[in-house]
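JOB MANIFEST
job_type = single_chain_structure
chain_count = 1
residues = 74
[input]
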Amino acid sequence: MDTDLALTVGILLLVLSVPSLLSAWVESRAPRLGSVMFVGAGALIVYALTTRPGGYAFNEVPGVMVTVLAGFFN
């Protein structure tokens, strides 16, 4: 898997896991799906950061995400 794609999918999963975790917390139930998404997102982000030589700078992340999303639409 391309590291740019792994980073983008990981960030999107992380963003999508937050409402699931909050919903489970408010309703006093176990956050199963949210936890799985959170762990998967963390694994993808760590994979992308450790596999790419030099890693990612914070200011590179939006450009990487735009490049990956543009690749899907072209």
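[summary]
The chain has a mean pLDDT of 93.
Residues 3-73 form one domain.
exit_status = 0
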